[in-house]
Amino acid sequence: MKTAVELTQLFRNTGRKVTAQRLCVWRLLEGNTSHPSAEVLFEEARRELETISLRTVYQVLRELEELGECMSLDLGTGASRFDPNVDAAHHHLVCTSCGKVRDLYADFPSVEAPKTGLDGFQVGSAEIVFRGTCAECKSNAGLNGSTRPKALVS
Amino acid sequence: MKTAVELTQLFRNTGRKVTAQRLCVWRLLEGNTSHPSAEVLFEEARRELETISLRTVYQVLRELEELGECMSLDLGTGASRFDPNVDAAHHHLVCTSCGKVRDLYADFPSVEAPKTGLDGFQVGSAEIVFRGTCAECKSNAGLNGSTRPKALVS
DNA sequence: TATTAGTTAACAATTATTGTTAAAAGTTAA
DNA sequence: TTAACTTTTAACAATAATTGTTAACTAATA
Question: pTM higher than 0.85, yes or no?
Answer without folding.
Answer: yes
